[in-house]
Structures are given as C-alpha cells and as structure tokens.
Amino acid sequence: MSEQNPLDLPEGDPFGPHNLPYGVFSPAGSATGSATGSAPGAAPGSAASDGRRVGVRIGSYVLDAGAAAAALGSPYVSLLAQPTLGPLLAAGRRTWSDVRRALTAWVTVPAHRDAVRPLLHPLSDVTLHLPFEVADYVDFYASEHHASNLGRMFRPDAPTPLTPNWKHLPIGYHGRSGTVVVSGTDVVRPTGQRKTPADTAPVFGPSTKLDIEAEVGFVVGAPSTLGTPVPLTDFREHVFGLCLLNDWSARDLQAWEYVPLGPFLGKSFATSVSAWITPLEALDAARVAPPARTEPLLPYLDDSAESVADEPGGYDLRITVSLNGHVISEPPFSTVYWTAAQQLTHMTVNGASLRTGDLYGSGTVSGPSPEQFGSLIELTWNGRDPLELPDGKRTFLEDGDVVTMTAWAPGPGGTRVGLGEVTGRIAATRG
Amino acid sequence: MSEQNPLDLPEGDPFGPHNLPYGVFSPAGSATGSATGSAPGAAPGSAASDGRRVGVRIGSYVLDAGAAAAALGSPYVSLLAQPTLGPLLAAGRRTWSDVRRALTAWVTVPAHRDAVRPLLHPLSDVTLHLPFEVADYVDFYASEHHASNLGRMFRPDAPTPLTPNWKHLPIGYHGRSGTVVVSGTDVVRPTGQRKTPADTAPVFGPSTKLDIEAEVGFVVGAPSTLGTPVPLTDFREHVFGLCLLNDWSARDLQAWEYVPLGPFLGKSFATSVSAWITPLEALDAARVAPPARTEPLLPYLDDSAESVADEPGGYDLRITVSLNGHVISEPPFSTVYWTAAQQLTHMTVNGASLRTGDLYGSGTVSGPSPEQFGSLIELTWNGRDPLELPDGKRTFLEDGDVVTMTAWAPGPGGTRVGLGEVTGRIAATRG
Asked: A149, exposed or middle or buried, with CB in 10 Å at 0-12, 13-18, 19+?
C-alpha cells in the first residue's frame, strides 16, 4: 500500500512492539455510554452493548486484538474476542507469553502487519474502559520515605517515624474494589465527618483536604487455593502486569475515622487506574534490586536467597505527576522498600486466596527528595508550604483541578516502555 | 395424594411459609465438587457444571425455585432459574416483594402445593453453596459492649474504653470478599507474624489465638450511583436481606499488624456466612428501636426524625453460639448501637457506590452480660479466664473445634423466624 502504515512508528516510541499493553475499548460510534460508562453496578450485559473489546496499544493506535486473532486464525481468539481482560488474565503465565509472542508477530511481521492494519483504531477515536472486573483491592504502604514523612507529620514525638512493625512486614489494608474507576473518570469531591483538636464536635461537609497518592497497581491473573500461601518464587505465575494508580484520599475524613480500624471513607470514594495494563514481560529490562534491607526478614519474605535474588524484585519506573499540566513531582518506584512479590506473598501467607482480577497498590511512591514526594500532604507538608503553580497556590485539590500521572521504564536495547497515563478531574460535591 | 405433603409443617416451625429464605443448592448427585466447591477463583462455568440453582427453604426441605416458577408459568423464572441469587438481588425492592408473594402462594395454596411438591428436595440430600458473588465486604464495629470490652482490655489506661469517634460514626473497614465462604467450609488455621512485648523480634507460625466473631451480615441488592450518597430512608430500597456471619479472627496476627492501617491478615483468611439469606420482609415483626443514643448525631445519621423513626432500625435477632455442641454465648442483636441503615448510609456518604452482592457485617454482637459476649477474646478476657466445657478448657480455638451459630427472630402472630446456621470446623495449618 502507498499510505504509511500506522505500525511504522517513530524511532523511540515508548508504545512500540516491545511494549504492547492491554486494555478494553469501544470503537468510535459504538459506545452507548460516556467515558464513565464502566461505572460499578452497571447492569449485566451493558458491557457487551457498548461494543467493548480487548485492545492492544501500539503507538497512538489501538489494535482490536480479538478481530486480529480471528483474521489471522489464531487459537487465542477465545481469549481476546472478549469485553474484558478476565479470560486472558485467568489463562496463566505460559499462555500470557504465547499470546504476547503472537501479538508481537502481528505488529512486526510484514504479512501480518498488512492483515491487521484495518483493525487499528486511532486512540483519539475510541472510548477506554476499566479493563477488568476488580475482585479484591488491597493498598499497601510500602515506600519508606512516604511512611516516614507521615510519621514525622503525625507522630512528631514518637522515637522513630516508622511504627515498630514497618520493617518486618509490608503493611496493607483492603480498599473498595467497587469504586476503582478508569483514567478519565471525574472524581466527585467526597463529603463526610472531620474533627480537628480545635473542634468541639465533628463537622460535616465536603472534604477540605482532598489529596492524591501516586502508586503502581499490580493485577493478579491466575488464582490460588484457599488455605495455601503463595511463595515469593511464584510471583510471576500469578501477577499478569501493572498499571498506574491514583489512590485519591480525603485527609480530613481519614484523620477522624481511622483509629482503630484503618482508612475507610477517606479512601473509598474513588481509586483511578490507567486504562492500559503493562504485562510484566514488557518490563524485564526494568527490574532492579530493591533498597537494602535494614532489618532481617522472616524467611517467607526474604528475597536475598539465591533462588529469588536472580530475579530482582524492584521495578525502575519513573513516575511524573502533573497538576493542571504542571509537573509537581517525579516519584521513583525503584526506591520503594517492599517489592510487589513480597506484598503478594505476605497477602497470602495466612492462606487467603487470590482471584483473577485482584488488584493491589504499592502505596504512595515517594523518593527521598521533596520533589519526589507522591502526595500533596507530603509536598506541602500538610498544607504548611503551599505549592506555587503558574495558576496559583495549592495545598490540597480544588474543584476543577486535573491530576495526571505518567511513567516510563527502561526497555530492551535502550528503548523506553511507556505506561498508560492515569488522569482525573475533581468535580464539585453533588447537591 | 395419600402421603403427607412435606409442606404440612409442624406448628411453630421456624422455617414455615412466613420465612422463606433464599439460597443456592445442588441436588443430590449433581454436584461435581465438595461442599467447598464454591471456593473463590473457581473457573467460569464451574457453577453451572455442578447443577447449582436457587432454592427456598421450607421446613427441612429446599424448593427448587426456578423449576417451580417454570412449572407454574411464573414470570419470575428468569430471576429464579439461575445458579446464583445475583439477578434476583439486582431486581430491586418491588420485585423482591412480588417474588416473595408468589413463593408464599406456591407453598400455601393447595393447587400450587401439589404442583411444587415434586420440586422439594430434603435439605439433608443437597449441597449448599455461597448464594451470591460477594462484591465488596465491609465489616463494622457497631456493638458498644464489644468495643468497650476490647477498649478495656487493650487500652486500660485510656480515659474511656471507646475511641473519641465511636459515638459519632459507625466505624468500619473493608475486608476480603474473595475469602467469604459458605457455612460448612473448613477454616484452615492461618499462619503469620506475631510479636508480643516480651518478644525481641516477630515470631512466625500458626495463629495461637484463633477466635470467632458472632455477627449479622447484610446483603445489598440494588446498586447505587457513584458520587451520590444513599439516605437512611432508602435502606430497604438497597438491602435485600441478612444472614449470620462468623468473622474468624487471628488475634495474635491482628495485634502486631493493625497499627496504623487496621486489620488485614488477622481477618482475611476466612469469613463464613450462612447458606440462607433471610429477606428483610420476613423480619418486619422483629424490628425494634435501637439503643438510646447518648451523643447527638449529625443529620445524615440521625434516625430519630419522624420519617425514619416509624421504621425502627434495630432487629431483635437472638443469636446462639455453640462450640463443639455446647452453648457458649447468646448475643442479642437488638443491643447493637448502630443500625444496619446507619451503616449503609455512612458507607455511602462520601459518594462510594453500592453494587449488587455487597456484604457488610455488623461487627461482633456482644450484649451487656458476659454470657452474651460474641467472641472468645471477650468470653475468656483474652485468655485469662478459660471456658470450662465438658470436653475441656478453651481459651482460643483448637484444631478440630466446630463453631456453630444459629438465631431466631420474632415473626408474625407469635411465630419464630429461623435464620440459617453458620458453622465451620478448624483445620490444621497446611504443612
């Protein structure tokens, strides 16, 4: 053909054939809902009715993966011609590799490239959906710099900023899976109770300390058996890939409610994830050793053993956080103390089972330097030091603010692997 | 017919036509799995392959509700001829009433009774399953007596046993929905970290303080919209029914992990629910006013307003807890401070949405007297005062122990409404 093939990407494109993240999209004209059509509680069948299907991002296009599989007679059509990533996630590591190998061929081998070319949709024309049904959502607290910053702010008189358990186990808690939303979904400012020491009684109203948390989310594919822990070495048998995650937080609601049972309404109103899930296989060149451990670990969490250490557990993901288009932070994921494998193992050591679609967040990623802090409460030191932005000062988020996170990781041969962005706009409280 | 009809129940049967709880069962011979076949992470299609279907309990029989609907030409066949309660739950309050009215007729009107008689299965012949897919699971902490007991035990020097927020909001947290199991499922003793003040480092091993929590679980049917709170008056538009719930707890794991983000592995290994969901409509005669409020409530939680108070928010459920067949406690649900309606409203006041299948527990139900405490940690005062049972002393649970909870509520005209039992046996940690 004479036209340029969209698969002829500019050199260095972070969404080249070395990346190939997965998502779910509706082609132009087929979506009956809005970008927020993937709202929890949608009636059964609504997914199918808006034409949603598995897509793979290549450059600034989306390949209709199920249609490509059908066109090329691939045996993976049953996994890919679906309105959700669920069946692919459930298929397990060997199949994930095989499907990825097939997809790579479809976008690189000339004959296949011609065959799939009509099945490419410009990204700007499609609607992206939450790519899988979130089973359980767990949020960790795995960045030492983040946990130390919060300890200094809230327990200034404690002997150390970290609680005594922090270096012995990855602290985590369950969040609300039903309010995980896809990038682009508006976030309605939550309402609730707050009470500062100065208040004689709780005050009710829209949150005045609405914050972000820059995180990486890990997506479980293959399930595990109830009653049987998953060892560190099985991490990649169960975890399919990762995404960017913004764990929106209402600091004022959280402060009043969280003793003794942990965060609840301060977190449960929304958690945004990127529309693209990057398979772990695309990130092999980004694997790095985690920070040196400063306390001995119990054997089930010890990743210094030879069998584990040859697959380093950290990932060198460079995150950028922007507020209304201005970069406010660049948190380095490689500085996070607890690895995703340790988190998975800890989460199951009591026998808790994994399900396809389980999602767990790393917790706020904060580096050692102030320009690497992953939340506004750290960046402004709980509002004491406002950010000076071109469009005004900010302590916490105002209605209309747009927060966007992007990230990239080193890829093979000096390339970059782009992660899908996660973005959200703050909408005013309803009513 | 000359034989006695199983629908001719003995007078006073707590599972008479005034009750009619819903469940999901497999008839004898059709189940391919065991009683634990409803394990999380089961492959898609496994539900259908073991013949599971919606059942309604009547006396000691189960009516195949979908088959009855088909036999009688009911329009509700599409809701009832299903392997899960999901479609019925999603149908909403008006339909719940209509279906219940139809079912009542099928088991009471002579012509219908004859028609459905062949569709009755003895309870002892069927396998009962988790009756719906649990979406989000939230556990509250709504019993003042329970929270006060724990405060006295763990914060003996605090000015009051309750935390300052306790009387202002129903404290809750998200639990693991993927490990909610049906009554009868063995509970494998969890393993994990614990550290007492006497230990210099954390110790790893099977929990030595495995406990129960006697609770009532509420099942959400109709979903709500993200960003829009659900008011107190809409409780019965969303909540379909209730069940008994045992929130198994490993007190030693919980004590070491829970500061600052709340319980995690100390709870997430298993939560058992009764196989039968009692519709709220069956419990109208059991409604009672909740305990007097001793602190003023913010308007969104205030259930003293006339529009709310004519539907009292408490339920007079009398729970019995047995350990290896010996009654160890009789917690009265009517003493719980926060109502299920207040819990639902609080859970959504920040805009968090509800999904069909959301489950929330009341928290441990403890009455004011020691023989009404709903957990072993209270009954034995954290192991100080062992229970003297005919088969030996108990502080916390031992392998092989069987815990069973039953309950009943006042029904119309002096009847009793029985709740389905929730039972579980402790299995040894897997080697």
From this structure: buried
